[in-house]
Amino acid sequence: MTQNLKFYSNLMSQPCRSLYIVMNLAKIPFETVTIALREGDHATESFAKEVNSLKTIPSINDGGFKLAESIAILRYLASKSSLLVRWYPSGARMRARVDEYLEWHHLNVRSPLSGYFVESWLKPRYKKQPPNEAALERLSSSANKSLDLLETVWLAQGDFLIGTDVTVADLWAICEIEELTLTSFDPTEGRPKLAAWMERVRKATNPFYDEAHEILWNIRKKSSRSQL
């Protein structure tokens, strides 16, 4: 891993926030290049040529090696440096458990929760389109099922999703859940373990957790003031 690692991101993106937090926790040196999503900077041909051909973030450039997708980036960084071992364990069984969650996460947490966020919050504000009520109901049902599994299965045995300390599994999960604070959906309602876990993860990863989520909280504050 080179000393001039470039991290292309926007902290409105849940996977970008996850990587931002863990790279800072691990003291991995990097240069942030903020991509303006609303302006479509990621959708340009120059972005495809210079950053990655998938036109997505997060993305990195490590001395000319370009890589997209947050989990791929995480695993690449872990393979290049021991700095991540505390949050992405190197032991075969612990890493397998973390990977088990990360594989489960995409379809069971990211897909319904980000879908609900887009349908209920993003589309009305930036695309000026009303939410599709049928889609909201379907996404809400799927999100509740997954949040219930976090409460009753993943958090059944301890304070964190895997083992006795924070791992990247917790970070990828919580950054997705935190997005819902901009909507009327309360993921912690009726889920005391989930609520306590969120507070533990935030405390264990600050100040970087708050730095990563400041953009969300500022939007929430602005929205609250506008409703007064």
TrEMBL record:
It is found in: Cytoplasm. GO terms for cellular component: cytoplasm. The keyword Cytoplasm applies. It comes from the Eukaryota. The keyword Transferase applies. GO terms for biological process: glutathione metabolic process. Keywords: Cytoplasm, Transferase. It catalyses: RX + glutathione = an S-substituted glutathione + a halide anion + H(+). Residues 91-225 form the GST C-terminal domain. Residues 3-85 form the GST N-terminal domain. GO terms for molecular function: glutathione transferase activity. PANTHER family: GH16740P-RELATED (PTHR43917:SF8), PTHR43917. Belongs to the GST superfamily. Theta family. This is Putative glutathione s-transferase. It comes from Phlebotomus kandelakii.
